Amino acid sequence: MRENLVESLFEGRVPYEIYHPFPELVEPSAGQLRGLRENLLQAENPISGVELLKRWEILSRGEYWGAPLRTRLCALLGECNPSAALSAAVHFALGRDLVENFGTKAQKQNVGGKNPPVFSFALTESSPGSDVSQIQTLARQEGDDFVLSGQKDWVTNGLYAGFFIIVARTQPMRAGTKPGLTTFLVERQPGMRIEKLDTAALSHAGVAKVSFDDLRIPRSAILGDLGKGMRVIRAGLAGARLLVSAAAAGACRRVYNDTISFLEERRAFGRPLANFPSVRAEIAKVLSDVLAVETLVLAAAGDPLTRRESFLERGVVRLFVADAAERVFHGARELYGARAFTTQEGGKQPRVSWADARALTLLDGSDFALQSAVVLEGTEPFRRKIASLSSTSEQLDHLDLLGAQTLERMRGKLRRALSPHIPKMRMDELESFTTALGELVRDKLKKHRDYFVEMHNLHRRILCITTELAGWLALASRVRTEAEKHGEVGARRMREVAEVWVTGAVLRIRSSMEALDENQDPTLDRIAVRAMGDRSYPFEG
Ligand SMILES: Cc1cc2nc3c(=O)[nH]c(=O)nc-3n(C[C@H](O)[C@H](O)[C@H](O)COP(=O)(O)OP(=O)(O)OC[C@H]3O[C@@H](n4cnc5c(N)ncnc54)[C@H](O)[C@@H]3O)c2cc1C
């Protein structure tokens, strides 16, 4: 069975083969994408995302594409028109695929046909989007029908959608009970109020507010099972995470290309900007992050994942991308100087904005909430094991959380001996950081037990280390595959760029490891509590 990325890393094991050989797109898929690429890169007009998808028949063609091709499609769209990338991610992962996987025969027939309808997914409300238990939209059962009332705040494609997947509670909110969410597949109809939501980013993605006031829908509109909406939501988010990560990877590639062409022309102090050593260092770092982002996204897209694995792994990919994309855009802004802030058409500012790239990775929830969710779900088997024991510290001291650690240590030695040698990719350090991560997770779980759930700063740091290790592993596999195909010399260029990225990753991992024991962060807590009490800046100027 395929190894599980998150659980392996949390157990301190490097899943060496998980991304190996590095997945590549083969013909005829690669050719299809090349053709599309030429057309899309020429289509510069800021048309709506949905219009662009329709114009190039992406909705109908994409229906039959698997994850590797759809991921590359979203990367390409992220490069040309990030709003279209968001529209496509929502349409496919949070619409089309959910009907395919959870829909009844009648529902599938209803949305089929030559001109596929556009899909929207309506989950978020004015309550915190990260906390689905707060959803207020109610579907009241009346005979064989449901009566839907509520308002959804951020509905991508809402202006154009033919079908909406609407998340509602089917029982009134009651303290201490699970929300009992249900997903409904609802065709656009007069009883829905749809208003444009003006957004500061991705403004061509047709984002709308959608509200329903006693909208009657038949029972047959339930998508999946009554009260089991979380299954549908999770499946949708797992798919969407990969596609928006790909879109952000495309945005990074675009900003890199634009930056390079800007630097080609610009001169200061009598020489081209690209001749300054500090500018060169920044170009190299930005390129290394662009490569790392693309690599982890493609690595995760290339595998037939099981649902549970994909949920956690794609969370890691999404968090990795959000972080690395920040570095890419930060570097690009520095290199552009004031031009980064001009809005004139034809100016040499990066054409994909930081706000667009960041907003793409917000579709599936905030980073903080996602970090905790991945850590808690990834450590669940260990936490269950701890909970099943009595609380005597002696028992805990002897607890072998991973089942057979002695055996594992022996296996570890063997694995190290067999671990792939990839020149300059510092595989021995990857191995020892992973072992250290496993020990840290185990120690913290044993030490803090139930309170571990509350330790959000600890989750953040664990996740920072995990995402860096995942990126490292994917890059190592890509370099290794490149060397297998083109020899050491042929792979040198990519390997050198990867080496720069690994140097940065080592520093980031060390800093997260050092900060790990300061998780209580009592000073930070104290400062924040007082800040909230003061309500404004507390010092005299
Ligand atoms: C461009 C765009 C398109 C979107 N499209 C859709 C769509 O099609 N359908 C849809 O349903 N939604 C959509 N959304 C909404 C998106 O899903 C929500 O923005 C997201 O879930 C976050 O919810 P929120 O904005 O309410 O933030 P909140 O949940 O209010 O979070 C605000 C901040 O609080 C902190 N926080 C919250 N929870 C935690 C936690 N557990 N731990 C630590 N910190 C926490 C974080 O710092 C977070 O950034 C879209 C959003 C954007 C930006």
Can you give a write-up of this model?
It is built from 19 helices and 10 strands. By secondary structure, the chain is of the alpha+beta class. Helix 10 (307-336) crosses helix 17 (456-490) and helix 12 (367-378) packs across helix 17 (456-490). It is globular, with a radius of gyration of 24 Å. 42% of the residues are buried. The model has no long low-confidence stretch (mean pLDDT 88). Flavin-adenine dinucleotide is lined by residues 90, 121-124, 128-130, 154-156, 202, 207, 359, 362-363, 365-366, 368-369, 372, 456. The site of flavin-adenine dinucleotide (FAD) has 22 residues, from strand 1, strand 3 and helix 12.
Helices, strands, pairings?
Blueprint (H helix, E strand, L loop, with lengths): L4 H6 L18 H14 L6 H7 L2 H5 L4 H14 L1 H21 L2 H7 L7 E4 L15 E5 L2 E11 L7 E7 L11 E7 L4 E5 L11 E11 L3 E2 L5 H37 L1 E2 L2 E2 L4 H25 L5 H30 L17 H7 L6 H12 L1 H8 L5 H5 L7 H14 L8 H22 L7 H35 L1 H24 L6 H13 L7
Parallel strand pairs: 1-4
Antiparallel strand pairs: 2-3, 3-7, 4-5, 5-8, 6-7, 9-10
Helix pairs in contact: 2-5, 3-6, 5-6, 5-8, 6-8, 8-9, 8-10, 8-11, 9-10, 9-17, 9-18, 10-12, 10-17, 12-17, 16-17, 17-18
The structure holds flavin-adenine dinucleotide.
Query: What spatial form do the alpha-carbon principal axes imply?
Result: globular
Q: What small molecules accompany the polymer chains?
A: flavin-adenine dinucleotide
Rg for CA atoms: 24 Å
Contiguous helical run count: 19
Strand content: 5-15%
What topology, given as strand order, has the largest sheet?
A: 1-4-5-8
* Residue-averaged pLDDT: 88
Structural class from helices and strands?
alpha+beta
Helix content: 55-70%
Largest sheet: 4 strands, mixed
Q: Give the end-to-end Cα distance, rounded to a whole number of Å.
A: 62 Å
Low-confidence spans: none
The ordered H/E elements are: HHHHHHHEEEEEEEEHEEHHHHHHHHHHH
Number of strands: 10
